[in-house]
Amino acid sequence: MKAYVFPGQGSQFVGMGKDLYDSIPAAKVLFEQANDLLGFKITDIMFAGSDDDLKQTKVTQPAVFLHSVILAKSIPDFKPSMVAGHSLGEFSALVAAEALEFEAGLKLVAARAMAMQKACEQNPSTMAAILGLEDQMVEEICETITGTVVAANYNCPGQLVISGSNEAVKEACEKMTDAGAKRALMLPVGGAFHSPLMAPAGEELSSAINNTVVKAPICPIYQNVSAKPVNDPNLIKENLKAQLTAPVRWTQIMQNMITDGCTEAIEVGPGRALQGMFKKIDRKFAVSSATI
Questions:
Q1: Is 194 in the active site?
Q2: What is the distance of C-alpha 152 from the center of its chain?
Q3: Spelled out in words, what is the top-level CATH class assigned to the domain 2-121+196-289?
Q4: Does the predicted TM-score (pTM) go above 0.85?
């Protein structure tokens, strides 16, 4: 059984998607449609912009979404047995699995990006990667910190990202190092994604999700909030609403996919981060990048 998985923010690079734009007429149409819907030429930034421009949340998220979705639509005989997406990638997965229309998905991602960027500007915060500690240890240390800091991204065994206020995350990193973490690395991100500090953005996005049509996907989608396979449109919506303030349970998603019969994972979008995470679960597991 093949799982198609979709990366999130942080996988972007300048030049992403240009090969699709130049070689596939249907892909070019979708990119130009995105330019019109967004009200600016995101293709200029994606194909030849600066790293700084591409790193803006309001640009990064629709850019990664577009690359992933248009690549998926360009794969011959695209027939996933299951799909999942890491954080932002969940929206790409939903479009690829035909639960969301392309235009609706792009509008949601653009709304999500703007809401998150605004929340970050209003409440400065950050994230940090913790390497080499058990998940439970990271969770327990976070609970000892005064201020907001939580486990945000369960990426793979031995790699967990924490999220919260600047002071709380810094203090947590010091305690993680004292507890034996191999590394506790502050990340160059705009804010505390997947933490309670994203509540204002979550409320804003919930309204947009309520007004969006979600259909039953062509295959189960393993959603970030529960790590479980979902087919019901109403539950998909509820999980999307909770996503911004809840942790990304990617380790559990990978484990559940394999338990449910997945024999191969194909990463659809920029970068290879998700392939490396699957290898942390099982070094022999078959992973690859999508090709057209």
A1: yes
A2: 12
A3: alpha beta
A4: yes
